[in-house]
Amino acid sequence: MQYYRVAAGPEMPRPDRVAQSGGLFSLGKYIMVVLGGGLGSLARYILGTAIMNRFGGKFPLGTLVINVTGSFAIGVLMTVFTERFQPHPYWRLVLVIGFLGGYTTFSSFEYESFRAVREGGSMLGLLNIIGSVALGFAAVWAGAVLAARR
Asked: Would you say 60 and 128 are in contact if contact means Cβ atoms under 8 Å apart?
C-alpha cells in the first residue's frame, strides 16, 4: 500500500488503493484509537475537574492546563516518533491520535472563550485565546526540543 505523508498527521492511504488493499479497515487500528481516545477523555475529565474544584473561578484554567500539557506531549511524541525512534505504527495511533485526541480540548477552549466574551468578559475570553495559543505553541516547541536532545 502506498501512502502520502501529511505533516504531523497520520499516514493516509490513497483513496483509489484502499478498496484494493483492505488496509484502512484493519480492526486493530480502530481499537488502538478507541482505547487511546477513551483514556485521553477520561484523563481530561479527571484533571479538568480536579483543577476547577481546586481553583474554581470564571477563567477556564482546567482547559488551559489540558491544552498546554497536550501540546507539550504532542511535541515530545511526534519528535520521538519521527526523529528518534521508529516505533510500531500502533503507538502513534493509540497515543497521538487516540489519547491526545481525546485529551486535548480545542472545541471546549473555543466555546469557553466565546461564552466569556458573550457574557461580558471580553478580557477573560481574549486572555484564554492568547494564553492557550501562545502557551500551547511554546509547549509544543519545548516538547520537541526536549525530545530531540541526544
From this structure: yes
Chain centroid to CA 138: 15
Alpha-helical regions (H) of the chain: 15-21, 27-55, 61-79, 89-92, 101-103, 106-118, 122-148
Distance (Å) of CA 88 to CA 11, 25, 30, 67, 139 = 13, 18, 15, 26, 25
Could you tell me if 130 and 114 are in contact, meaning their C-beta atoms sit under 8 angstroms apart? no
Q: Which residue has the cell 485526541?
A: 101
User: Mean pLDDT, 10 residues at a time, over the chain (150 residues)?
Assistant: 41 45 70 95 96 90 91 89 88 92 83 85 90 91 90
* Nearest by Cα to 136 from 59, 66, 87: 66
